[in-house]
Specification:
With 338 residues, this protein is α/β, with parallel strands linked by helices. It is built from eleven helices and twelve strands. The protein has a single domain, classed as Alpha-Beta Barrel (TIM Barrel), CATH 3.20.20.70. It binds S-adenosylmethionine and iron/sulfur cluster (SF4) (2 copies).
Length: 338
């Protein structure tokens, strides 16, 4: 099979997001609220989770179909035992140009050297506030700020390039936009603001809690003027801006108020091996079943190709047009990976 497949609206398959666990040591209210993901929640048992061998085999198949970038996510990916081993094996796949992970940073201080040794060069760390009280409220009382900042520092010191993700929720942490921007401008890490999204069914999302891209830009721009800069590549999720008095940049991921479905080239595979072609999907396709059957790589390749060829997902565009499917049962972000 040659490189490159297109979906129904001509979008190539280029990025693969692999969730390696549905578990997390945080309970962020916008993702895994404690009252739903408390002690009785039916997390995946280990026999249901793809092994590293299965994940590597699948990644090779995706690479043959055009994938060049791989992001490891979760749940909290650093909870997955021996994760550096997986990074090492994925890094050895020819044609994989970029591997990164998204983490809440709480275990990063411990793992940063091992991740670097395994070949990782980039990490995205999620941090929603520099204020302990608000951060505790956002993450379900699981971590103080300094733990994550220590992780960021450790990552930086071993040579990992660090980006920071901040989900902005009105009335919860929007007062932290400027302190976060100033702090990471000074510390020279790219900060990306994420509009609070209506992923899953459990966070009680409401449009009234979204701080829009426009508002974020205006608030920062009043104090630290910004200019728009070119995307690094087609399909980049964050719109980039640079402070006019420095070479430091920020990004805004505006999936609610300025959707970017037309260039979405991302496939997601959950820890149990289900393929999702949109973050807001309800159903995934069971690839684990194929991997654990007698199917050849070619047969699995054809199946994935078939699914991608029929893809028409554009949920955020539809939401913007007021046409998003109502009452859809959506997969949880912690299951599918961010
Ligand atoms: N646990 C890791 C972390 O938090 O970085 C990786 C998984 S997490 C699901 C991936 C990203 O999704 C994080 O940056 C998180 O802040 C973001 N996220 C989760 N729920 C969200 C929501 N409702 N709206 C916007 N972003 C969300
Ligand atoms: Fe865990 Fe990440 Fe979800 Fe927070 S956003 S609960 S850290 S998976
Ligand atoms: Fe891609 Fe779905 Fe997000 Fe649109 S809504 S950008 S199709 S993941």
């Amino acid at each position: 099979m040659g490189d490159g497949i297109l979906d129904k609206i001509n979008r190539p398959l280029k990025d693969l997001r692999l969730s390696v666990t549905d578990r997390c040591n945080f309970r962020c209210r916008y993702c895994m609220p404690e009252e739903i993901f408390g002690h009785d929640y039916p997390f995946l048992t280990s026999d249901k989770i793809l092994s590293f061998e299965e994940t590597e085999r699948l990644t090779r198949i995706f690479v043959n179909l055009g994938v060049r970038k791989v992001r490891i996510t979760g749940g909290e990916p650093l909870l997955r035992k021996n994760l550096p081993q997986l990074i090492h094996s994925l890094n050895s796949i020819e044609k994989v140009e970029d591997i990164s992970i998204t983490t809440n940073g709480s275990l990063l201080k411990k793992f940063a050297p091992l991740l670097f040794e395994a070949g990782l060069r980039r990490v995205t760390v999620s941090l929603d506030s520099l204020n302990d009280e608000r951060f505790y409220q956002m993450n379900g009382n699981k971590s103080k700020v300094s733990k994550v900042l220590d992780g960021i520092q450790a990552a930086s010191e071993v040579g990992l390039k660090v980006k920071v993700n901040m989900v902005v929720q009105k009335g919860k942490n929007d007062q932290d936009i400027i302190p976060m921007a100033s702090y990471f401008k000074k510390n020279k890490h790219t900060l990306r603001f994420i509009e609070y999204m209506d992923v899953g069914n459990s966070n009680g999302w409401s449009m009234t809690e979204v701080v829009t891209k426009q508002e974020i830009l205006e608030r920062i721009g009043e104090i630290m003027p910004l200019e728009l800069i070119e995307p690094n590549y087609v399909g980049e999720v964050a719109t980039r801006y640079r402070y006019i008095d420095s070479d430091q940049e920020i990004g805004i991921i505006s999936s609610v108020t300025d959707a970017f479905c037309s260039t979405c080239s991302r496939a997601r595979v959950s820890a149990e091996g289900k393929l999702y072609t949109c973050l807001f999907a309800s159903e995934g396709y069971d690839l684990r079943h194929l991997l654990r059957s007698e199917k050849s790589d070619e047969e699995i390749t054809n199946k994935i190709s078939d699914i991608w060829n029929r893809r028409i997902d554009r949920y955020s565009d539809e939401r913007s047009n007021g046409n998003s499917p109502k009452n859809r049962d959506k997969v949880e972000m912690s299951h599918i990976g961010g």
